[in-house]
Amino acid sequence: MSMWDDCCKRSGQKIIGILDNDYWLNTDQVDGVNVIGTEQDIEHLLELREKYNFFVATNWDPSLLNGDITERDNQKRKRLIQLVEEYELPLANIIDPSSVIHSNVKIEGGCYIGPMVSLETRVSIGKHTQMYAHCAFAHDVEIGSNCFFNRRVGAWGCTIGNDVYFGPFSVYAGNYRNSHVAENAWIHPGIIVYGRPISEGEIVTIKSQRRTYPLGGVNQIVQ
């Protein structure tokens, strides 16, 4: 929570409070931000809708390294996004003032653009997508909704579907013609993909990027 709060302070936005059933009546604040209710109180939600914009701050992670906790957060984020859509809640973007964004970039609601992110011409970003520090997207990138780009991610000349996760330092080098990352794909940290299409639900690892063929009795690795 402190990351969102710090970014909002830098950009001149004010966080009114947190609506979260896990925190409501259990604690007064999270990282200095007041807990003002629960998302399950629809009447209160609709009252706030008339005055404020909303941002889904629960993160998601396909690795499930923390087991049940991570999976619970993943499902919680989906429920909160469904709630936003069902009640047509207006969305806020949290954009760090140190980011460099071309004038024709299109960013839908509920997105986070972190410190030193670079977005060049003809980039479009769907709802609830998050880009963390030092990401760089060159021209002609179309990004779907609820995507997660960890630190120092890069891409160009491609389309990226919904619910895609890029690990830190990963790069997708598109060919500006038919390079596409399909929905629910996951690119592991540090992987560089040179333009090949990535299938729906594909997990891209070092092993999946290397195909070995016999050549004169010696294996040749083809990237």
UniProtKB/TrEMBL annotation:
InterPro entries: GMPPB_C, Trans_hexapeptide_repeat, Trimer_LpxA-like_sf. Pfam families: GMPPB_C. Residues 97-173 form the Mannose-1-phosphate guanyltransferase C-terminal domain. This is Mannose-1-phosphate guanyltransferase C-terminal domain-containing protein. It comes from marine metagenome.
